Amino acid sequence: MDSNWTEIKIEIPARDAxxxxxxxxxxxxxxxxxxDYSHLxxxxxxxxxxxxxxxxxxxxxxxxxVIHVYISPEENPAEAVSFxxxxxxxxxxxxxxxxxxxxxxxxxxxxKKYFKPMPVGEKLLIRPLWxxxxxxxxxxxLHLEPGLAFGTGxxxxxxxxxxxxxxxxxxxVDFLDxxxxxxxxxxxxxxxxxxxxxxxxIDPLAVKTxxxxxxxxGVEGRFTGICGNLAQKVTGKFQVAAANIVADIVILLSxxxxxxxxxxxxxxxxxxxxxxxxDVLDALSGRFTVLExxxxxxxxxxxxxxxxxxx
Length: 311
Fold this sequence. Notes:
Elements: E1 5-13, H1 17-27, E2 32-36, H2 40-48, H3 55-58, E3 64-71, H4 77-91, E4 96-102, H5 104-112, E5 118-120, E6 124-128, E7 140-144, H6 156-168, E8 174-178, H7 184-191, E9 196-201, H8 204-216, E10 223-227, H9 230-233, E11 238-244, H10 247-256, E12 261-273, H11 277-284, E13 288-296, E14 299-306
Parallel strand pairs: 6-7, 8-9, 8-11, 9-10, 11-12
Antiparallel strand pairs: 1-3, 1-4, 2-3, 5-6, 12-14, 13-14
């Protein structure tokens, strides 16, 4: 099998970098990094505390940003390019897309430079396995091998989900991770005291990565990874469930979600871009009550409970 990945480069005006990055994350919420030199001098002073900047960096175009997106050999890059073009045109963002092949090891090494230990919420610290020198800061550490499946915790959607898990996971609960990706939510739930977690995903690579992340964190005995369709493969009920994907899939999964929930269960949804929040709320109306809503950089997450009227 061809192991080369496709690197898609999207050049956009620097002023649109955040919006364009959010759209790129809808294609692959993993393996994406951004070159944006528009605030180079002030960031060098504030973050790195240096005044001397490499000449090559100084020559970069400050008015443009470049987003790098990596598409795995199993995926069709043409679909991603088509999706991105359609979304950028709809958002009124000028863009230029080019693509090239990229060896898997180059993808990994490029991307690792941008993924560092990161505190999330009040209790958690996400640590990539290749970072040996880190300070846990008194937090519960999630040791993560993101591999090639999404869910690093660096994206707003996952962070919002983790913050809600901190609040709603109680010791001894059972947790259902719908569209588990790298398994980060399941590992976090178990680290926060859940009795058991089930992660389900249609992507076998994601499930394999999730099982490995559970092993690395010493919770493999309490994690079950399932590859396949939620409605067909999962049985039982859970006190907390989460779906951190995109609006359309959240809407789809939420049709089946009540089957897996108790009347007082908490259902966390995330990955919802703010322009689609109304569609999701319409789909949940009459079935779920919103307990809490959080938003960051145009992404929305909510904690829900089954509507008592259903009982």
